[in-house]
Structure formats: C-alpha cells, structure tokens
Task: structure prediction
Amino acid sequence: MTRVVSRNPATGVERELDVTETRPGDVVELADRAARMALDYAKRPLQWRAALLREMADELESDAANLVALALDETALGQARLEGELRRTAFQLRFFADVVEDGAFLHASIDHAKDSPMGPLPDLRRMRVPLGPVGVFGSSNFPFAFSVPGGDTASALAAGCPVVIKAHPAHPATSQACFDALVRGARKGGAPEGLLALVFGFDAGIALVDAPSISAVGFTGSVPAGRALWSRANARPNPIPFFGELGSANPLVVTPGAAKDRGDEIARGVAASMTLGVGQFCTKPGLLFIPQDPSGDVLVTSLVDSLRELSSMTMLSEGVAENFRSGTVTIAGVDGNHRLVGGDGDGTNVTPQLFEVPAAVFADASSRALREECFGPLAIVIRYLNRDDLSNALASADAALTFSVFTSAADDDASWLIEFAQTKAGRVVANGFPTGVGVSWSMQHGGPWPAATSASATSVGASGIDRWLRPVTYQSVPEDLLPEALRDDNPLDVAQRVDGVVH
Amino acid sequence: MTRVVSRNPATGVERELDVTETRPGDVVELADRAARMALDYAKRPLQWRAALLREMADELESDAANLVALALDETALGQARLEGELRRTAFQLRFFADVVEDGAFLHASIDHAKDSPMGPLPDLRRMRVPLGPVGVFGSSNFPFAFSVPGGDTASALAAGCPVVIKAHPAHPATSQACFDALVRGARKGGAPEGLLALVFGFDAGIALVDAPSISAVGFTGSVPAGRALWSRANARPNPIPFFGELGSANPLVVTPGAAKDRGDEIARGVAASMTLGVGQFCTKPGLLFIPQDPSGDVLVTSLVDSLRELSSMTMLSEGVAENFRSGTVTIAGVDGNHRLVGGDGDGTNVTPQLFEVPAAVFADASSRALREECFGPLAIVIRYLNRDDLSNALASADAALTFSVFTSAADDDASWLIEFAQTKAGRVVANGFPTGVGVSWSMQHGGPWPAATSASATSVGASGIDRWLRPVTYQSVPEDLLPEALRDDNPLDVAQRVDGVVH
Result:
C-alpha cells in the first residue's frame, strides 16, 4: 500500500499522510456503493437536498482556518487568495442550494392528451432525472473551488447524484480535510451512507473512469490528460459522458482606439491578469493582439515594465514548473517570435515571460506552438497591422474559454469583434479581464474544443447542473405514480411548461 | 462517377437516378459553403426563421402525392403509413417554427452587475447560439420523418444551423425529391444560398463526419454503424458532438394482474405494435416480460395466434432482411430459448418471429444475444415466476429508448416498475404501446447507451433543438452590441431569467 505524500512546493518539505493510494478494486466498490444508494438520494425532497448543500457549506467555513493553512502549505497560492477561494466555494454550495430550490433545472413539461394532425396524442410528461454516480477529478490550481468541494461536486450533488472524487496529488491533505468537512455536513443533513467517496492515486483515477457504476465524469485539467481520460470514457462498453474543462489560450484584443485612449491602464491590467495565481488560471489571457502602431508600442512597453517589476513566483509543483519551462523553450524556438520579458528559475520558482510576434507569423501553420496554452505566467503579444491582419490571425487561433475585447467609444471595431468572439469562445468579455469567473446564473465556463470536451456544458454557474441530468418522458402514467414535479397540482411549485406554455 | 441506384424492395426492380455519388472533396466544399453562410443565417430574426420552416412544410405537402409514390416504390412501407409519415414530417417543421417563435430555447439569462460574497460581479448575460453546420444522416426506416426533411434537419434549421444531409441508400429518389422541396421552401423564404446540401454514398458519409466545417452530427440507425461514425467524430483533431439514436431492445412488462384482467387485449396490441412497419421501428417492443402462470399462458397463446394470422411482409431492403434472418438464427441458437412462431422467407420477404425463454435463462450472461435489438418483426417472451425473477431479468437488460408497463388497478407492482423503468429508458409508457412517438414539447426519444450516444439528447420533440446549440456568456458587453435576446428591453419578447428570476 503506497502512502500518500503531501509536499510543500515553496520549501520542498514532504510528509507522509495517514492515507494510502486507493486500490482499483476499492474504487469499483465505492462506485457500486454509490450506485446502490443513488435512487434513495435522488428521491429525497428538493428542500432537503438544498439544506444538505448548506450544511456542507457551513462545515467548510467552520474549518476555514485549518483548510486554508493546509492549502497554503500544499499550493503556495497565498493566504488572501485561498481565503477568498474558500469563501467562493462555500458560496457555490449555497448557490446550488438555491438552484435546487428554484426547481427549473428539472425542465418539467406536461402535455395533456389531445388530438393532433397525426391523430390522438397520449398524455406525455417530461422532466430530467439524475444520471447516477458521478466521478469528479480535482484540479491542481484551485484546491477548493475546482477540487473536492468544488463546482463539479456541488453541481452533481445538486442534480441528485452521489460523487466519487479523485483527489489531485498536488494537495492531498487539503483534499482529505475538505472531504471530511463535506462528510460532516452530509451526516448533519441525514444523507444516506455512500453519497460521498474520496480516492487517491493515478491508478485510482483510471479505475474511476472505467468503473461500471460511474455514470459521468467531471474533470478540470490539461488537454493531454483530459483527452486521454475522455478517450477512456468513450472506450467503455457503455461509454459515459466526460465533461472535461481543458486548457485554453485565451485571446485578448486591444483595438487601435483603445490602445490610444488607455494603453497604459490596459497594460497594467493585463500584467496583473496574466500573472494572477502565477498564471495558473485556465482563463489567463495568453494571446494579446495589440496594434502595430505608436500607441501599441507604448502599451507593450508599459506591459514589459509591469512584468519586470514582478519578482519570481512559486508554481504549484515542480512538475507544473518543468512543463512551464519546457513550454517556454518551445515558444522561444518559433521562428519570427522574440522574447520581451524572461528570466530563469529553478525548482518551483519561475519568472513571468512575454513574447512578441507579427500577426502574419502567428497565423502561419508553422507557428502552431504559439497557439497552444502554456500554463503559467506567460503571454504572447501578437502585433497586427490592420483589421485583415488581425482577423486572419484570430481565425487561426483555437477556440477558447474566454475572448476579451478592449475597444474605445470612437472606433467601429467593437461590433465585428464581439460577433467574431462569440464564434470562438464560451465567454466574451468587453473592456475587462477574463480571470475572474463569477458563480452566477449567467456564467458560462467552457467552450468549443479544445477549451472543453463539450461546448454545450459549463463547469461554473447554475447550468453546471445540466451535465448530470437526462430527460425521461412518462407516457400515460397515472397521477399517483408520477414524480411530484410532473403532477397537475404541482406540489413542488416548480416551473412547468403545460401544453406548450410556461407557468 | 458512380450513379445512384433506386431499388424497389418488393419487386427488385432497379433504376439509375440522374445523380451521382458525392466525392469526398465535394462534401468538404459543401460543408465549407455552409460554414461561410452560417453566421448570416444565425443572425436572421426568429420570426423569419419560423416562416422559413413553414415554407418548407408547405412545399412538402404540395408535392405529397409525388413524394409518397416515390417512397412507396423505394420502401414498400404502405400508402397509408407513408401519407401519415409525410403529414407528421410537415407538422414537425411547423412545430419547430413554433419552438423558434417561443424563444425559450435560447435560455436567455441576465445578471446585472452586483456585489457578492466574492466581491463585485460584472454584468453577465448568457444565451445559446447555433453550433454551425450540422451533418444529418437519414435513416432507412422513416423515409420522411427521420430522413432528409426529418427531425434532425428541422431541429438544426430551427436552432439556426445550416445542414448537409447524407441520403440513405434505401430511398435516394425520395431523398432527392424531399430535398428539392426543402430547397424550394428555402428560396421562397429568401434563405441564403448554401443553407441546405444533399450528399449520396458511403464515402460521402465518412467525409461528412470528417469535414472540418461540420460542427455536429445527427444520426439515426444501427448500433454498429452509429458507434463507428461516433468513434470517427471523436477521432477528429477537434472532436464534434455526434448525436446517434441507435438500436434498442425495448422491454414491455405485463404484471400478473394485467395478464389476468386483459391478457387477450394486450396480446393483440403487442402483435400489432411489434409488427408495425414490419417491426422496423426503433421503438418496437422486443422483450416481452410475461408471468409464468395460467393468465400468462393465455396471453402468450393469444399472441401466437395473432402473429400466425399475419402473412409475410416486405422489409426495406435485402440487406435489412438478411440481417433479420441472421439475427433470428443467432437468437434461435441460444440454449434454453425456443421458437413459438417462425417461418422462412426469401429476398426482402420475412415472417414474424416469436421466441420464449425463462427469465432466469434470459438473465444469464450466456444469453447476451437475446438482449440485443433484432431489427424486424421479432420479439422474445420472457416468462417470470415472481417479482425477484422479473427484477433480475430486467436488471440484465440493456438501457432502451422505451420501457412499457402493463398493470392492473389491483396489483401493487406499478410503483416499483415505473421507478425502475425510468432508470433504464428515455420514455416510460404505462398501459400502452411504445411504437408511436408523438412530436410535442414533452417527448423524449433517446436513452442511455446503447439506445443513444447521448442520454441527455432527444431526436424527437421540442428539445431536439438543444443538440445544436451552445451557451455563450457576454460579460460587460454594451447594450447596443448585445444580441437582442439579452437586452434589458427584451425586444424579442423571449423568456429571460433576470437576476435569477424567470420572467
């Protein structure tokens, strides 16, 4: 039995935890246990389910000092950031409690029997039901918000699905302590045993995707890891949905008007956004499209100055830092691309990196490496001559999670840029930075491949619940055997579409 | 250039059509053409899009006599059935026009800027946008409703996506004539060129899934063909969603009470349902769970008598008939299974087939062949001793499109059966037959694998439109640059969720 090791990336100090890597057979058994209680959980009243999520939020907050200390030791992400992330994570659980109580996520629809041009139609009623046990993969870069107690777990529980969570090896002690808090909340809420499980280790992750009782997977991480696990989910005898929120090289366009009006302000903002959390955000603006004109020159100079003011930074792990350094070397090797800001580093320490390339070079097929995400504090300035040059370069970029556009009141580029942006990304940001991802009804965090494995899904916001549901139609089923959400008297008081009209 | 051949399955007469199989390069070009006009089409007003769908419905109906004659020649499905199917197909286009006008499919949501426990949140607005060009694969068994002018085409056009349709080789002349009618409707509606394209041939189908400009695929057909194309869609450099409505062995359970009350009536209904359209319905009840008691014996005897009264039937093609005969041989070879009704056939002619097996044998791993769909007029009677015997056998069955339950007022099996059924199927039918699939707001036609590649999707009903959309969030985008559906003054008068409350 391999003991799980917790490592401090800043100091290199390691300690063995009192848990072992989970054997694949045990992963299968935990998933089976979840499947056995899934229907019981799914049938509990919505109000009860909402209260359960709030209990879990309370337990996380009660243990906040301990959880933040553990995460600080394991991630080096900083006290203020981690405290904020934990608040956000508790808020997210409570937000999903609201989503559950709202009930619209059920998509309840009732068509009473009637005649039609195709002859008589029977009574048809449709709603969404939980898929069953969900496998959740915690991320490295958000030890709370996209890990054990994060959005995938919260939305799956909200949908009525038990979860089996694979802890990320970058923060196992934080993962275990968060899990313990969720379990305390589950017990206080009176949840059936088996609602939550936590597994550790690479092999356990593989076993989780393969486990016959797992109905769907939520994943946040890199394109290669995500694509490998997604392929595995598809290769099962019964393939299951795999919702991977993968990497993203996020474009940020500054129009000539905006560069002229407030280039310096934008440059300072970009420097802060691209280095936030040591650039370890999937929404980091990595592709900066700046006009090749005097105002653009001023903006780039200001960006260079802002980045040079920053000291070296500690990444999440040596592996992440190694990937960053090798990514930097690959990018530096692209012909026609040159470095504006750089520096060495070692171990987990790195320094911000900035490159510059003409738009025409960026758009060339040989510059593929520039268009792929480099996870960390790195961005590429792409200098464009005019609208055609810009639009050619943008067209060559991959789809992304976010697409930011800085415009001025005077210029007429805003309209086509916003229209173009929505073809390339899940979120279009006007005159702002993409790195904050608010938990709300209207948030979309996802995008076309390779930003995510499913462009129709989101891993943040109310619609995250959609991933764990599937519709069922009940035809001519007597009222007393129907789920409550589909009864004529609507005892749950949820939104119902009745004979085509929403009530 | 290979000429496309139309074949009459009843007479074997063949004729060359005035069209050739589409070269893969031409498929790519048609998809590229669709991509070039996609944004223009997506931006047209909803009212205009709805009117376009109604023009297409009108054109289909104007040409009804010709279309039905062509389909009768190519499918042998019968005049009345084909007339009804064409009416249904025109109705479906008009129904999707209503869905477009309703506008709720956009999922418009507006969160105004506000403070939150995580600090200030920007203005966030989310709606769904069309994916882009959709590839549609026509089915063999519904030359109208699930082919060129069918549900995939109608829902994709409704979503705002152009379509490139692959005609099924079983009815190419019908496909071409239906396509011509759609094009006439598109012209009358003033649609941009390139909205619709039709391709022929096996290689063209492969090229369609691979074409870089195709954003998603809709498919109706067998599990092997669907799985192969789905894998191909996943193997692209940028994988695309593939919505396959595949095969299904649909369970139908008769409780002891129902068998006693009205066994004869149920038996006649089953005989009609399992042979409707020569059993070439994906919703055909193929697994009949009947109690092993005297009432069950009477039911089975009545079913046997009903089937023996039927004469031989013409299947859609020799290939389909050959598959049916080889499937019958495989099923007959399962130990413990015996034939109740059978007979020979040749060419496209077949006779109904009925088998009987004890529930315990059906549940055994060695009986796998009994649990797979056999496309055609064949069913397997599974005799069960008691509830445990039944529930073991049901648990061994694959997920399905439909699950039918016949109960009596007296028995207490209805509750657990309905609850179990919704874990196994996309549609649960009480005291009725699954073969009719009404086009309505509340229809679900899909189910967990292997019934469909995506359990959350439906290929019939209003929610079919969901497949061709993805959400986009607009952050801090000025009012005049927002899509109309997301403006505060709601000029389209669509359902909007505003600050969490639906209006």
About this structure: The CA atoms of residues 151 and 460 of chain A lie 6 Å apart. The first strand of chain A starts at residue 3 and ends at 7.
